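Example record used in the benchmark description.
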Amino acid sequence: MSKSLIIAEKPSVAADIAKALGGFKKQNDYYESETAIITSAVGHLLELCVPAEMEKKKGKWTFEALPVIPAKFELKPIEKTEARLKLIKKLIARQDVNVLVNACDAGREGELIFRYIVQYCGTKKPIRRLWLQSMTPDAIREGFEHLRADQELLPLAAAAVSRNESDWLIGINGTRALTALNNKDGGFYLTTVGRVQTPTLAIVVDREIKIKNFVPRTYYELHATFAVQAGTYVGKWFDPDFKKSDTDEHARAERIWERAKAESILKACQGQYGEVEEEKKTTTQAAPLLFDLTTLQREANARLGLPAKRTLAIAQALYERHKVITYPRTDARALPEDYLPTVRKTLAALRAPTLAPFAQKVLDEGWLRMNKRVFDNSKISDHFAIIPTTTEAKHLDEMEMKIYEIIAKRLIAIFYPPAEFEVVTRITRVAQHCFKSEGKVLIEAGWLAVYGREDQSEEDSENRLVPVKNGEKPFTEKIELKTLQTKPPARFTEATLLSAMEGAGKLIEDEQLREAMGKKGLGTPATRAAIIEGLISEKYIDRLGKELVATPKAFALMEQLKALDIETLRSPELTGEWEYKLKQIEAGEYTREQFMSEIVQLTRTIVDRVKNFEESRLEPKPFPARSPIDGAELVETLRYYQTRDGSFRIAKVISGRVMQPHEVIELIEKRKVGPFSDFISRKFNRPFTATLILNDENKVEFLFSEENRVQQDEEIINSEPIGVCPVDGAKVYETASSYICENALGQKASCNFKISKKILNQIIDREQAAKLLQQRRTDLLTGFISARTKKPFRAYLELNEENKVVFAFPDRTAASKT
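Model output (structure tokens):
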């Protein structure tokens, strides 16, 4: 009997489908009935890779290998989920499977996951599409009654594949090109860029620039204390004719910029009676919307200090392991319109003492009803808002319970009535000057009761203004002039950076692109935490307490993108432009071929500009140091601190470490700086520790402590090999202390060939070491000092039959091993 194979995106969805359709028996990782098989991916199972022949033919980080533009993109399994992919491939190949049902999430990413599985398995079996925005049993059954034809979804698939290939092309080629440029002087300085990563970094860098360039301005405020029969109250002077300025972001109605003016107002009002105008009104505040992942991460960061990555991990555990919340990687803050019965069951199932009374009140009072703020299909894309499930929350650790309660309280609160406040605005006029006093008192807690604000608190008492009788004239008992200064913008926290990424579309000037980007922002709720963590791991951002601070490496990248004229990589407009055209592809108004042709051209442009970059075209900036050779003034170029003629230079990046200006100055003045522990080995891509010194030739060298001596022999300082190892034919590289076979490096060394760079006081330079490898003999060297007699002598270095380095003296045979 023929069967359909239903492929969901996640195991939990596969289980929901099996339960809703009925009649299935669970096997290992799939369900089977008489008519169908249900299995699932576990998110993405495949990723794009560099074609093997391109990797084999050309080096990985050299310009010669670029641009990498495959004629056909190859897929490779993601290692940790390869077993699931093998299972799906086996099920697809079954003789009794005659149709595939794409039950992955309803959106671009779900379409991509399914299409890559089909491509990798090479199947030609017919496809149908299940399109769900709700996971209730009724919605699932209805979805299967109205499966969509595969042809309908081909434009969405084209957009999904195009977006993924475009990200790959720009990321791979941009990263490799910039890394190749920055590694011309040796070492390994990984310079990653990406469509989402780099604009996110630019947001942090731009904020840091504003902070560094900020010049505080002094301003003044007047705070008056007024006495009436019922007591005293405080008012702040303000300008009633103030209008917001487009040119002065620090202008405020209550700020006075001239001290003389402030003192004049103080003198005019001190000890005077005033008149009062008062307005009372009742305002309401509705509960905030349900959580999507980004708002949950912001809330957890603000309330609990959790990094976004940690919040995502906890939410994922609550979803996958404990099954107490719905799918967390969502950008929606609404529920499906058929979800009201499910929410009723969910509220009834909340049993925790901090939740149950409030949840029950929602049900008892009849507050749970259809509400467009909560139930709205038009506000749902792939997934709906995060809420609890009907599963009881058991065996949660402390932080899991805190996140669970944050989610559950938000669901309960949204059905409560709004909170009501009485707001009093009092204007006290003294000698024609206005002072504003405001009071805000909670009248009805409404949804705030869920968060412990059932009664009027001490805070409300403090915010209440003492009453003023009709006709009563307040006396200006005291007036204080406060001298204050404007403050720079705050550094980003994870919560505020997540908000900035979400709202990045607002930064786009082009209205059409801004509208296309809409609420998507930079990245997705599921990827934003990983983007931030990636920027931290790549040393572009430091986490200092709650603050995120751009590093010198980040500033160097932004400077480099500007110099290379590829600033498009740092702008959210690239995402906006892609999103606009991808939506056109989905609508059948633009072709995948047109889009990818433009992306390939952009890729070539980026690589060409990096390849053909000439640093000499840029005007260098003055640098406050002088050459130790002749005292000439130094300048700062894109990659060096150097003299104008280049006779002395220090690279800005040394073995993957960005040198800060004050460190370079110290190195020049003291001829030594460090030690630093964040140099990166090119060979092993791991950190090592060393001090930097200027040697007798005014070249920068590493100085290793005894405990780091092993690292000295393992740090390749020049990416170009000097020759071929005479023992095993592998490449020989220069390290700080030797010329060594690449197979003699690391813990699993298989060769021991090495030429020391200093033998009996004689420096063996690259030219002589290369000659020794090629001709098995150096030129005659004259700087040896005998260890026994302390006298100088001349000799050649030779390789003997055992490939050992030995001395050979003029007119004599090889005398001894070195």
